[in-house]
Amino acid sequence: MRGNRMNTLIVIESGQLVSYDLDNKLVWEVGRPSKGNLPDIKLHSLTVSRKHGRFQNVDGMWFYLDNNGKNGTVYNGKHITAGIRGRIKPITMKNGDILIFGGGEEASINCKTIWAMFSERNFPERWRVEDTKGLEKIAFTDGDDTTKLEKPEKGTVVEKEDGIAIYMGDITYLVGDISVMAI
C-alpha cells in the first residue's frame, strides 16, 4: 500500500466514493455544477454553493480556500469563517484532514452533506464497500494490528500501515490490506 507520496482528496456523497489525484492540477474548483458552471470537483447537494471553494497548490503545499457560502464548510470539526474584513483565509491541508461541505456550522454527516478527506497516501487499489448496518461494535484489522470501536461515529477513519477504512454507518469503505468485522 505504501507508495509514492500523492495528494488525494477522497469525497463521499450519497453513498458514492470518488478519489481525486490533486497533483494532476494546481487549482481544483469545488462546487455544484449548473449551466455555465462546471467545477473540477462536482458536488451535487443543494446545500453546496455553485462556487463553494477551491484547493490550490502553492510551492508544493496544498490549501483549501472556502468562499464562505450560505451553508459553509466544516474543517476538522470547526466551521470555516471568513478572515479579516470578510477575506478568504487559506487553510493548510495536512494528511487526514476532514472537510464536510454544505452542513452549516455543524459537523454532522447526513444525506445533505458531503464528507471529504485530504490524504498524502497513494491508493492504487480500488475501494471496497462492506455492509456495517446495525453494527455497534466493530474491529478493523491489518495483519496482527486490530482497532476495536464501540458505537463509532459516521466519518470515522481508521488508518493502518497497509490500508484505510472509512466508517459511514451502514457501509464502510476499505482500501488496501484492511478488513472490518463485527465483535
| Order of SSEs | EEEEEEEEEEEEEEEEEE
Number of helices: 0
Shape field: globular
Please give the oligomerization state of what you see.
single chain
Textual characterization of the structure:
The strands form four sheets. The chain has a six-stranded antiparallel sheet with strand order 2-1-11-10-7-8, with no helix packed on it. With 183 residues, it is an all-beta fold. Strand 13 and strand 14 (145-150) form a beta hairpin. It has strands spanning 8-13, 16-21, 27-31, 41-42, 53-58, 61-66, 73-75, 78-79, 91-92, 98-101, 114-119, 128-131, 137-142, 145-150, 156-160, 163-167, 171-176, 179-182. Helices cover 0% and strands 46% of the residues.
Quickly list its features.
183 residues; mainly beta; six-stranded antiparallel sheet; five-stranded mixed sheet
Question: Layout of SSEs?
Answer:
Blueprint: E1 8-13, E2 16-21, E3 27-31, E4 41-42, E5 53-58, E6 61-66, E7 73-75, E8 78-79, E9 91-92, E10 98-101, E11 114-119, E12 128-131, E13 137-142, E14 145-150, E15 156-160, E16 163-167, E17 171-176, E18 179-182
Parallel strand pairs: 3-4
Antiparallel strand pairs: 1-2, 1-11, 3-5, 5-6, 6-9, 7-8, 7-10, 10-11, 12-17, 13-14, 13-18, 15-16, 16-17
